[in-house]
């Protein structure tokens, strides 16, 4: 397969990009983010529309659609499945749905830590598709960061280090459960649900993107420790790298409106749901496209240390 790297256009270029008739892709950030107009999401998208969305996604890492009021869970899943086989809703949580993860909060909590989805398994999801079902009167924004440009911006000595670095990721806590003051911030699931099966996976800190060939940082709050470093050293190194990822110039922030859908390349981003909506209810629903096992710069694949994720995502379904 021919790999083509997708880079953002120069900062001085037009925000609008060419695409199929009726579709407009307009960038909303210099390093990450674009809005796509002229597409009615669902399983009946034309192949040219699917290709245009995928191209925009690979280029901009996260894309947003407005006015998708017609979507229900089935249409949401049908749309996501145009981009590849779907995972189950979550590796450990019984959500009551085969494909849909409901993430709810009514006490001002959300996914308020930086993460890439489900990096505690070996088969890291490729794409996440999120829609707002119940939105707060204010706040409740979500922020995404580009882990490709974060890597690209590292000084050469730091690149030399991370190119050879590996880390252990675990689900000792899950983003939909993360909160320092409440035992059960999500209305549907408990902490015990998220840790009902423990996973640990050894990932390269730098992976090669399977579609673009770009290098991206594999970090986020599931990181337990870097191999070859003790706990205090791992913490210092983690914050050094994470601060590069989450630098404001490397991010885009989305203010949700009814009918909005966000779609991101989970292999090239981290995200953070801002917990600033007091006690207003907030419910989001996520459907996930299965991904492959990350590959390091020197061609080695991630390794399972604990847990079996085959029920969550079948790698054989990705082989055409």
Describe it.
- It is a single chain.
- By secondary structure, the protein is an alpha+beta fold.
- The protein is built from 6 helices and 17 strands.
- The chain has helices at 47-60, 73-81, 147-152, 156-162, 191-194, 231-245, and strands at residues 16-17, 24-27, 34-37, 62-65, 101-105, 127-134, 142-146, 166-170, 200-204, 206-208, 215-217, 223-226, 251-254, 261-265, 269-273, 282-289, 303-306.
- It starts with 15 loop residues before the first strand and ends in a 14-residue tail after the last strand.
- The model is unreliable at 1-13 and 174-185 (pLDDT under 50).
Overall 3D shape? globular
**Total number of β-strand segments?**
17
Q: Helices and strands: which structural class?
A: alpha+beta
Q: Write the H/E string, N to C.
A: EEEHEHEEEHHEHEEEEHEEEEE
Characterize the quaternary organization of these chains.
single chain
Helix content: 10-25%
Report the top-level CATH class: Alpha Beta
Indicate the radius of gyration in whole angstroms.
18 Å
CATH architecture: 4-Layer Sandwich
How many angstroms separate the termini? 12 Å
User: Count of helical segments?
Assistant: 6
Strand order of the largest sheet: 1-2-3-4-14-6-16-5
Under CATH, the homologous superfamily reads: Clavaminate synthase-like
Note the beta-strand portion: 15-25%
Report low-confidence residues grouped into runs of 5 or more.
1-13, 174-185
Please summarize the sheet with the most strands: 8 strands, mixed
Task: Compose a concise summary of this entry.
The chain is an alpha+beta fold. The protein has helices spanning 47-60, 73-81, 147-152, 156-162, 191-194, 231-245, and strands spanning 16-17, 24-27, 34-37, 62-65, 101-105, 127-134, 142-146, 166-170, 200-204, 206-208, 215-217, 223-226, 251-254, 261-265, 269-273, 282-289, 303-306. α1 (47-60) links the parallel β3 (34-37) and β4.
């Amino acid at each position: 397969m021919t790999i083509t790297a997708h880079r953002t256009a120069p900062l001085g270029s037009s925000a609008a990009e060419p695409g199929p008739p009726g579709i407009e892709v307009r960038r909303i950030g210099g390093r990450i983010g674009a809005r796509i107009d002229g597409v009615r999401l669902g399983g009946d998208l034309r192949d040219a529309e699917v290709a245009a969305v995928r191209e925009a996604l690979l280029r901009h890492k996260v894309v947003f659609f407005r006015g998708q009021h017609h979507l229900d869970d089935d249409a949401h899943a049908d749309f996501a499945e145009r981009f590849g086989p779907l995972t189950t809703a979550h590796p450990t949580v019984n959500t009551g749905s085969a494909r849909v993860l409901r993430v709810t909060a009514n006490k001002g909590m959300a996914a308020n830590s930086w993460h890439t989805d489900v990096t505690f398994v070996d088969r890291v999801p490729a794409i996440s598709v999120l829609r707002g079902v119940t939105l707060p009167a204010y706040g409740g924004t979500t922020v995404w960061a580009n882990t490709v440009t974060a890597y690209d911006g590292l000084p050469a000595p730091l690149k030399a280090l991370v190119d050879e670095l590996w880390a252990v990721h675990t689900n000792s806590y899950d983003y939909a459960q993360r909160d320092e003051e409440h035992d059960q911030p999500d209305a549907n699931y408990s902490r015990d649900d998220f840790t009902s099966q423990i996973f640990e996976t050894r990932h390269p800190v730098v992976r090669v993107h399977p579609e673009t060939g770009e290098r991206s940082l594999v970090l986020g709050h599931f990181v337990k420790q870097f191999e070859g470093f003790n706990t205090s050293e791992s913490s210092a190194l983690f914050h050094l790298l994470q601060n590069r990822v989450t630098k404001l110039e490397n991010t885009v922030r989305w203010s949700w409106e009814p009918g909005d859908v966000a779609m991101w390349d989970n292999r090239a981003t981290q995200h953070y749901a801002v917990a600033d909506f007091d006690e207003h209810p907030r419910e989001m629903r996520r459907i996930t496209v299965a991904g492959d096992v990350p590959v390091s710069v020197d061609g080695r694949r991630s390794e399972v240390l604990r847990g079996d994720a085959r029920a969550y995502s079948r790698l054989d379904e990705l082989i055409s």
